Amino acid sequence: MDKLRPLLIGLFAPFWFFAPFALLGWLPFYIFRTFVKLLAHWLRPDLISMLAPKDAFFSSDRIHTCTRNSLVVSIELKGQIDPNHIRKLLNTKILQSRDQNGNLLYPEIGWSMRHWLGFPFWSQASLIEDNVRVSSEDVDLKQLQAQLAVQEYRENAPLWELVLHTNCVLLRWHHSLSDGYGMLLLHEELRTLGTAKKLRPVVPSRKSIGTSFLPYLALPYDLIKLFVELLLTEWFPLDKKSWTKFNAKSSPLETSARLCSHTSEAIPFSVIRKLGVKFGVNGTAVLHSAILGGLRTFFLANGRNIPSSVAVETPIPESVERKRRLGNNVTLRCYSAPLGSLDAQTRLRLVHSGILSMKRSTFPLAMTLAVAALGHLPRTLLRFTFAANDKRQRIFISNLAGFEEATDFCGHQVENISMAAGIYVGNAGIGITLISSGGELRVTVLADRNILHDDLCALRVTENFMAELDLLRAACPDGNKDDTFTI
């Protein structure tokens, strides 16, 4: 198929003739959005600016009643936490940090969001109170994570907060404010021990896209090929008898109760690299294959039929340099993954092949254009987009790649990291977050209770993930028997 790719690209290139019609369909929304933007400039001086399309894409949820587009990262620290020390560092290194021209490095930190004529705008937050609060709720960490992932933001207040809970710091922010990498940059600013190197800059995934016409030419073929593959994927084996319909107007407490999650214990990342070298594949293939194997074993153990293939999506950096420290600057890759493969090694080879094909595809470019186009829509239409996305069954694997060495947060050594996201509430997909820090990897499983009925099910998936790694290790040529995997 690779040898035929240039020929197939040429055969599908005439589909570019439909591009002008798509542009004409999008143009009225662009004109209306621009008109509202100009109108706000004249009539609403209290509004700072309209959100960029890639940030506005995440702004359609009920942000002031029960949000679903929040992300929560929990950082467990060693030693007793001093709230005043954290407040001081946060103020000097983030809130008041300025560039050489005297401009704030992170102005969005002090902004709130308002909707006007259907579009989101940044406005100066008037409720500038202490955004570092000590949790007084008598709940465990996992419950607090779930509650924060859907908890509303106060009107005219910033779209982030730090919550201190025993020896843990929970950083919560709305996705319109930033993606995960932007928040890692904030974490980098709050390190004081100097025990870890600086974060490596995110290298664009396809540098040639901006200078070569060939990737654009391949877009129609890559899109049609991927859509055909995804049409052949099957649905997860769900137990529809116990299915409960999600009410979008539910309270935050009811909504958070739907979120099932579990984070594994740490795995030395060197183990993943060794397995990749032994089998001649990359580390991403090892992780994806083990995730698929873990889900397959879970479904089989619960007496469900196994689909032969499922859709896997994974976010990557866009193919342009990051101009802002915060904001959203990611796109998506997607491929059809073999869930029905019986043998772990066969599944690993098929996953590796799928990932290589995914990396050659121009689908991320299409997703960049699609998100930018959808970000021009008014709030009501965006909600229809997210409602349709909730019904899509796929595995969403995100990678929160942190510092390679052991690191700290405000002078406290980081011992554990976990994550929660409200987007999986009422969603038909399964979320897998790979969190790497200090040379270790942790796997977080997230899903609505319709998919994984409770936290125990999420725990079983992580246990099966570890068992799948053990199978690969045992099957390694000259396998390293010293490496162990434990929950």
TrEMBL record:
O-acyltransferase WSD1 C-terminal domain mapped to chain residues: 327-454
GO MF terms, alphabetically ordered: O-acyltransferase activity
Keywords: Membrane, Transmembrane, Transmembrane helix
GO term, biological process aspect, one: triglyceride biosynthetic process
GO cellular component: plasma membrane
Record-annotated membrane-spanning stretches: 7-31
Pfam families linked: WS_DGAT_C
Name of this chain's protein: O-acyltransferase WSD1 C-terminal domain-containing protein
Organism: Folsomia candida
